[in-house]
Design a protein that fits this description.
Layout: E1 2-6, E2 14-23, H1 34-48, H2 51-57, E3 62-70
Antiparallel strand pairs: 1-2, 2-3
Length: about 70
Amino acid sequence: MSLTLDVTDIGRNIVRVEGTAVQDGDQLPAHLQPDYLAKYTERIAAMFGSAEQFAALFSAAVVITPSRLYT
């Protein structure tokens, strides 16, 4: 899989990661992950209304094991 991250709000400093992705059914939903919420609460609220709504839309946790990084 390939994951591309826009590390700024205006699309500069793009980072691409290649690796293996596996769905992880043992992970708690996003709205029950304190560290995740601490980092993304503001953006989740602006885009999805609430962390619960976000978790309902994006309910599958994916664990990525990186194999290559492009900067």
